[in-house]
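Sat 14:20. Reprocessing the chain from the morning session after the first attempt stalled halfway. Input below, unchanged.
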Amino acid sequence: MFDWLKPRHPDRTRTGDAFQHLEPGRAYHVVHPFTDHDGITHPVGETWTFRGATLLPHEDGLSLHVTTPAGAARQIRLQQSPEAQGHIADALFEYVHPRPGRAGAWPLLVTRQSLALAEDIDAPHAGVVDVEPDANAAAIARTILASGYLPTGRLFGVTWSLRLGPDRILFGHRHARRFVETLGPAPLTARARDVTELHVSYWAQADIPTIKARIAAQPGTS
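Finished this time. Tokens:
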């Protein structure tokens, strides 16, 4: 275990202090699923506000004190020994990210495919993007591009697609510029408030006509 994880006062409850990258009063969401000491699984997209941490080095114990969006106090217990949850406790920044918050925004959990086999070790790739509740699929695509969540592939171009209800959008970077294109008839009818999760598909460097043909051939596409 890293020395900087150990408190100066071993059994002190640090309910007003930061711990690693976690700051009291700030909202966070899980970006990589993990199971705690009590056998409780924390899935991608789980959100809570960090309040502080309790360290019990004589038992390798770490408790994260958090508050759920509903206002309930919760304790996430981890055992920091290598044979238990030490790999999680030593690298919380790989499992929990700050959640951007904006008044009136709709938090949308976005997942994406891996771009290469090497990325599979970090899967699932997930993040929370704040959008307007009445944003349509094209507006969501533009927000995702602007958020920096997706790899840009500026040199060769990367193309993604998303489906929001009946609406399909093709978007990404081509010739070092962003593009967003609607597939199918207009107007776009679905809105962000209709869903809480959204998956974007990766199309590599395939040309646009080929991608459109493949999407059109998918089941459920009219």
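Residues 74 and 150 are 32 Å apart (CA to CA).
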